[in-house]
Amino acid sequence: MIKRACIYCGTTDNLSDSDIIPDALTNAKIINPNVCRIAHNSKFSDYFESKVIEKLATITNLLDVKSSKGKQYARYPMIFTIGNEEYFTKIASDTEVFQKINTSLDGKTKIGPIDKILKISGASEYNVTAIDINEREITKKIILNLEVFFSIEMYRLITKIAYEWYCLHNNICNKIDAFDDIISFITTGEGKNPVQFVGNVALYKALDIIGSYGSHTLIAYIGSDDSVNIIVSLFGIAIYNVQLLPKAIKECQNNCIFQELSLDSQRKKFVFKSIKELEDDFISLISSAQEIPKGVNNNGVKLNIAVLDDTSFVIKNMYLEGFNDMQNNIMCVSVPSPQTYELLKSRIFNVFQISALTLKGLKRFVHEHRVFWKESFKLNPNGGDKKNIFLYYILLITGISCFQSFKELIRYLKQKLGKSEIALTDELIKDFEQIILSTKNYQDAITDGADIIDTWEN
After folding, report:
1. The model scores a pTM over 0.85
2. Longest Cα separation, the chain
3. Residue 56: pLDDT above 60?
């Protein structure tokens, strides 16, 4: 029996389960059980993990990612505008915005529940104006500092993810001297930085096609210089390349690995020793597909439809097609350029413009908004939140159609809209608004839909 020890220091004492990706950054946990509890698990949170988690709070909150250790979703900063006044706030849910008192950026105006406003010293019915926020245009501005993606804390975190994940899939249960430089960088932040930001747009698009919205993706490959590399895609927003080793080592035989961790906790994975082994497996898939008479023609090869729809087939095909780019055209940068920032901005914009339904996210929406559903509640078409309108539409159609399960809802959306990941364009949101507001007693249908969703099993 192999004796387990910490992959960072070799101690056999007080080993713990390390969240390879911090718990607050993913809904799909993956664990490396060979990390000592204090020095190389708990302290990493103080050294770099907590700083990255705090800076990415806006992204994790809007993607419905929450630490299993916390009661609330992460709080994030936001500026909202009503009329000519701008207000700064920090919230865990958009329903908090008008539950507390917020002060305008110029310090001259306050807004909040009128009963709380009137308790402020000097406030009275003579200098306080009551407004109906359901009839006011509200715009919201998300605050996100892109520098976090190029911080030393992020680089240490990405290296830690790559190292622990690679060790896990190679059954490494002890410290190996060949990783000394990587271990030093993770634990101290000193030495050569093995992380570079990937600028190849084709790779981003390839992962978009095979992956799900907001997911994390990790890929191990051997570079053209025989180095061992790990690609880490964080939420599909930023992709990094980590050079773990200058050459492959005998202790780590698996160097052709893929894993995706989605927002709904699903996992896709394959593990091969080499690109050659993957190619052989792929050819075997095609060969078995050709034995079945009924199929479709794909570049002269007759493939069975079931194989074409097989997720593993699509992922393996992506890896094989993108292998040359990974080796020779990954377009890595160590220092961000204006083009790098533009790529990041476009990726973040795409994530915020798309809403992907998860049962966890739907139940969160119901829980946070139910408190406002009084007998006479009405939606504000000028509220400025596209995702909220989309989710209210989901509650409406659920209440009307009485779907029996989350899967039934997704099937309906795919038939109606083509997919369950929806690009929230202005035109589409207006259509949703019109459907909601033109539905007689839409409030009843929305609350009925919420009650139905509450009964669905996770």
Report:
1. yes
2. 84
3. yes
As a whole-number percent, the residues of the chain with pLDDT over 70 amount to 93
| CA distances for 48 relative to 15, 156, 233, 417, angstroms | 21, 7, 18, 42
The domain limits of the chain are 84-136, 192-341, 357-455
- Mean pLDDT on 73-96: 90
For residue 306, pLDDT over 70 is answered with no
Which amino acid appears at position 203 of this protein?
Answer: L
CA distance 425 to 354: 9
- List CB contacts of 205: < 8 A, sequence separation 6 or more: none
- Amino acid (one-letter) located at 454: D
Integer CA distances (angstroms), 264 to 86, 214, 215, 454, in order: 35, 10, 9, 17
Six-digit token string for 438: 């033109």
Distance CA 357, CA 129 (A): 39
Which helix (H) or strand (E) segment is 133 a member of?
Answer: none
- H/E stretch holding 175: none
Q: What is the pLDDT of residues 316-374, one digit of tens each?
A: 999 999 999 899 888 888 889 999 999 999 999 888 777 678 898 999 999 999 887 87
Tokens linked to 299? 């570049």
